[in-house]
Amino acid sequence: MSPWDYAKNRDYDTAVCAQFLAALPVTGAAVSVFSASLPEACVCATDTLAAKLDEMQFDLGEGPRRDAVTTRAPVLLADVRNSSHERWPIYWQALLDTDVQSLFIFPLIVGALNVGVVELYSRSPNPLSSRDQEIAVALADRIAWSLLDRILTLNARNMSPTDESSPLSRREIHQATGMVLVQLGLTATEALLRMRAHAFANDQSMRDVAREVVARTLVFTS
């Protein structure tokens, strides 16, 4: 077993997301980290739908969490079904196929560093009060520091912030991205875009495409 014991990993991750559910009037939560030295990873999700919302944004390459990271400010969507989402129309259409009514994204920031995001959803179209927003920001600030410390620790141990055996791990996707960039002579970003385009065109998830690439049943050609 690795020095970063999986049971401790799991307990830590569960506690991270559980804090938001305990303190705020939301149905579910997911936390993702972004690091220049580590692949994007979903650290935790309180339920299947929370994990799906995170996965959808990763698969499609668009969504409100991109806005939160870019602006470094919360994205508060109290009624997603009666809003206009020109910046991420494909994700919005996918969102309408779920039970989500409200979506709240808070960036995880430490100084000049973007650590990740926390994505909160509700099955009722209700806004967060000013007090709820203050609580969410305070929790996000505290968790951002904790996650940054964890990322630095894992960097030193050459490990992933999500255990490779976890269903939240995207190790296979990153492995497939490396294979596609070699096949096509692209950058990692361009290879990921090609995989996303293939997934969208064939109504597949990125995990499905990655699995085929790694198994060599799908080979990209120019």
From TrEMBL:
Membrane recorded as keyword: no
ANTAR domain: residues covered: 153-214
Highest taxon above the source species: Bacteria
Coiled-coil region(s): none
Highest classification ranks of the organism: Bacteria, Bacillati, Actinomycetota, Actinomycetes, Micrococcales
One Pfam short name: GAF_2
GO terms assigned for molecular function: RNA binding
InterPro entries linked to this entry: ANTAR, GAF, GAF-like_dom_sf, WH-like_DNA-bd_sf
Keywords annotated in UniProt: Transcription, Transcription regulation
Protein name: GAF domain-containing protein
Gene3D superfamilies xrefs: 3.30.450.40, Winged helix-like DNA-binding domain superfamily/Winged helix DNA-binding domain (1.10.10.10)
Database matches in SUPFAM superfamilies: GAF domain-like (SSF55781)
